[in-house]
Design a protein that fits this description.
The chain is 69% helix and 2% strand. The chain has 313 residues and is mostly helical. It folds into three domains: 61 residues; 166 residues, no CATH class; 75 residues, Herpes Virus-1 (2-Layer Sandwich). Strands 1-2 form a two-stranded antiparallel ribbon. A hairpin with a 5-residue loop joins β1 and β2. α2 packs across α9 and α4 packs parallel to α6. The longest helix is centred in the middle third of the chain and has 37 residues. This is RING-type domain-containing protein. It is found in: Membrane. One of its GO terms (molecular function) is ubiquitin protein ligase activity.
């Protein structure tokens, strides 16, 4: 009996010794990981700061190339990840958006410019802007309702409700950002083609009192009258425009100045209706999110490449 007890004790001591050896091996394997993790965090912070400075300088010195590269990355980077993850719903909406926007952009870059093209362009991007705004707000509301447990009233699983809300929020923000950048590009092409606006210098044509400087078409509704389809807006510089044209120019095309004389436009004064102001704030939010959508994946990939070269895991 004593011999059996001694054998059991020896077995326990042997197992304990093996555990100590395995623990020592694991400790030796992970030795120095704390310093390695600190180094990786430092690399990430430094890269983010340097990248932000470089992007700001690039945008200030060469805005056209910056906007073009940013637009291309916003269009392609999500496509790569969603194709890899087999998100077919997003790919379907991306394809429909790309086909329609490509046709609209083609119309906007033609010379001579058809008289119906500016209104077609502004209406499409204004519609896209409003749809993305409503989709993003609805998705955010679903996420908040899920966090407060309201989804349980309708017997919807939290993971299903959260997935639905986050998906809608992603759709709204992504197409909102992408649509605004395409709208700005089309606005520049059309304005230079019409001839009333130039990036620098004086306008190349004289503007008549009853002509809209954005689309070049006559204004049929007086500023003091209520239009059936759209109204007429007068800026602080006394130049008048079609409602759809100036909305597309200022909100969608991100041009906060008069298309003719370049006087700064006060959007809060221009859109005095409180229900219209959220569209202005939403546009500013999209400008801030552009960095996260277009450049953040590239910066993170660059950081991972640095870590791989330095042998950091």
């Amino acid at each position: 009996m004593a011999g059996v007890f001694e054998v059991e004790v020896d077995g326990v001591e042997h197992d304990h010794g093996l555990e100590q050896v395995e623990h020592a091996k694991m400790h030796a394997k992970h030795k120095g990981h704390e310093a390695m993790h600190a180094e990786m965090v430092l690399i990430l912070i430094v890269t983010l700061v340097v990248a932000q400075l470089v992007l700001v300088q690039w945008k200030q010195r060469h805005p056209k190339s910056y906007n073009l590269v940013t637009l291309f990355q916003m269009w392609v980077v999500p496509l790569y990840f969603t194709t890899k993850l087999h998100w077919w719903r997003f790919l379907s909406t991306w394809f429909i958006f790309s086909v329609i926007t490509a046709y609209i952009s083609f119309r906007a870059t033609r010379k001579p410019l058809a008289c119906t093209t500016p209104r077609l362009v502004y209406k499409w991007f204004l519609l896209l802007y409003k749809i993305s705004y409503a989709t993003g707000i609805f998705g955010y509301s679903v996420v908040m309702f899920t966090l407060f447990g309201i989804n349980l009233i309708f017997r919807i699983k939290p993971e299903d409700a959260m997935d639905f809300g986050v998906s809608l929020l992603f759709y709204g923000l992504y197409y909102g950002v992408l649509g605004r950048d395409f709208a700005e590009m089309c606005a520049d092409f059309m304005a230079s083609t019409v001839g009333y606006y130039s990036a620098s210098g004086m306008p190349t044509k004289h503007l008549s009192d009853n002509i809209c400087a954005v689309c070049g078409q006559p204004i049929l509704v007086d500023v003091s009258e209520e239009g059936i389809i759209e109204n007429t807006y007068r800026l602080s510089c006394n130049h008048v425009f079609h409602e759809f044209c100036i909305r597309g120019w200022c909100i969608v095309g991100k041009k906060q100045m008069c298309p003719y004389c370049k006087e700064k436009v006060d959007l809060k004064r221009m859109f005095s209706n409180p229900w219209e102001r959220p569209h202005v704030m939403y546009g500013q939010l999209l400008d801030w999110l552009r960095y996260l959508v277009a450049w953040q994946p590239v910066i993170i990939g660059f950081v991972q490449g640095i870590n791989y070269v330095l042998g950091l895991e």
